[in-house]
Amino acid sequence: AGQPLTDERTQQPAAILARLPDADAMISRYTREATTWATVTPVILPGYDDPKKLRRALFPGEDTAHEPFDPGRQKRLLSILDRRTDFLLRKAIHQAGFPNALAEHAEIDWSGSGFWPGTDLAGRYAIPATLRRFRRLHVRISWRDAAGAPVIVRGPLCVGSGRYVGLGLFAPLEG
Predict the structure, then answer these.
(1) Staple partner for 172: which of 8, 12, 34, 119, CB 3.0–4.6 Å?
(2) pTM of the predicted protein model
């Protein structure tokens, strides 16, 4: 607090940093403690969730229309894709500075639609061009320890490749 912010073009002071009070209702919404958190803005996965192009096999085109539908194969492909997404989300948690134990034992759910009422679909958020090639998802994390007991985590939480541009922001779901 009290430090000047410098305009990059003019190199002149443009503003002074001020600490917001802890009692600020909007700030406390993101900084309080909770065991379960959900995204307000979608997480950008820190890598490709389908490097082997398995989704193409799930939704075959006309060139494979003659092949019989195999629900067992479809289930296996979906399981592989889910494991990859789970791996990338845990990687994002670790990259955001959380200990491996928290990332490893967290219960993670993800969806293209949000867990908060009124949250837009993950694919509808504007994102920087450099991140467009990566999948974006809404995520809910219930923090657990190795025994499965809830772990309280203090915010703010911002996870994923877009965490420096306002994406992957979480808010507590309980309390």
Answers:
(1) 34
(2) 0.80
pLDDT tens for each residue of 27-58: 888 889 999 999 999 999 999 888 777 777 76
Nearest to 165 by CA among 136, 144, 142: 136
Count of CA atoms in the C-beta half-sphere (13 A) of 63 = 2
**pLDDT tens readout for residues 9-22:** 899 999 998 877 76
CB proximity list for 35: less than 8 A, separation 6 or greater: 142, 143, 150, 151, 152, 153, 174
Q: Pick the closest to residue 92 from 145, 146, 134 (CA basis).
A: 134
Q: Tell me the C-alpha distance between 56 and 112, whole Å.
A: 19
Q: Which of 155, 125, 129 is nearest to 43 (CA)?
A: 125
